[in-house]
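INSTRUCTION: Work out how this chain folds

Token vocabulary: learned, describes local backbone geometry

RECORD BEGINS BELOW THIS LINE
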Amino acid sequence: MAVPDINLYTEQTPNGIKISITLEELNLPYKTHHVDIRKNIQKEPWFLEINPNGRIPALTDTFTDGKTIRLFESGSVMQYLVERYDKDHLISYPQGSRESYEVNNWLFFLNAGVGPMQGQANHFFRYAVERIEYGIKRYQNETRRLYRVLDEHLSKSTSGYLVGSKCTIADIAHWGWITAAGMAGVDIDEFPNLKAWEERMLARPGVERGRHVPSPHRVKEMLKDKEANEKAAKADGEWVLRGQENDAKERPWLHKSVT
């Protein structure tokens, strides 16, 4: 197997910890670069060379031709890591197998469903400067619907994981979002199979290590401290608003060459 030269550019978010957990589950060496999204580091020219969309996580590695390869979008990064490095199929299945396609089903279910819908629920419930009940209910209810799909699926699982007999990148992709359900105003207790799965995942050493990259993962503690949670939500809401305003403006550095 090739010697990894992995650089992970990340932040403490549900999408960011997907990749560090994947790396820890695979026992791969990697260098961590904290991209402070509250300081808009992800919009700087050097980072846009790695991810033109200006979002974390992103990753670089030395490819088989000896040149640097860039990976962005969390699902793409996860697929790259298992296809290239998971030769023993610790968290994947052989390419072309029935199980490998089922992993893709749930990976895309997360990327196209749970992540975007819960992200919007989180925004309207937690960050929006104007409380819009329609937006809150719309996205919370869609998040609950998706959670019910997961809960029912897990009720039929003999392993306790989403696909086959083991934890895969499909599980890892979901975990950071599910564990943060309360941030979006969704009660995980409504979904007993999903709650048991979340706790099962948390008990894994790779998840425990990876969730604290690049900084401590404090979602559960935050949800128990109402005052701290409200203070953080207010601060983050102001940052989100500034970010939206900046994103709506033309970014002149995109028209400059980067050396």
